[in-house]
Design a protein that fits this description.
This protein has three helices and five strands. The protein is of the alpha/beta class. The chain has one domain: Transcription Regulator spoIIAA (2-Layer Sandwich). The longest helix is centred in the middle third of the chain and has 14 residues.
């Protein structure tokens, strides 16, 4: 079974928000990477990646998020919104919960 990745862009204050839904895995991560690269190429320096509708996140998906953070560089802001315990656990187990600015609600952005 192939699960599609839903991607929607919006603005919230100074942030461009990319809301992601579905599963981020080896099959869908390239689509997410392409979208995030496109957003960054448009000159965005404040990015929010909303994972509240993500049911599954694997190491490939984490790699896309880390790569995006690296591409943003100094002076940029990246916020990850995530409130699903099983997805948050992936960040905690890998130690990335200390690297990313993780918020539990889009209202915190």
């Amino acid at each position: 079974m192939v699960v599609d990745l839903d991607l929607e862009e919006s603005e919230r204050g100074e942030y461009r928000v990319v809301a992601v839904g579905g599963e981020i895995d080896v099959y869908t991560a390239p689509t997410l990477r392409e979208r995030l690269e496109s957003v960054l190429e448009s000159g965005v320096t404040k990015l929010c990646i909303d994972l509240t509708e993500v049911q599954f996140l694997d190491s490939t998906g984490l790699g896309v998020l880390v790569g995006t953070m690296r591409k943003m560089g100094t002076g940029s802001a990246l916020v990850v919104v995530c409130n699903r315990p099983h997805v948050l656990k992936v960040f905690e187990v890998t130690g990335l919960s200390k690297v990313f600015d993780i918020r539990h609600s889009i209202d915190e952005v």
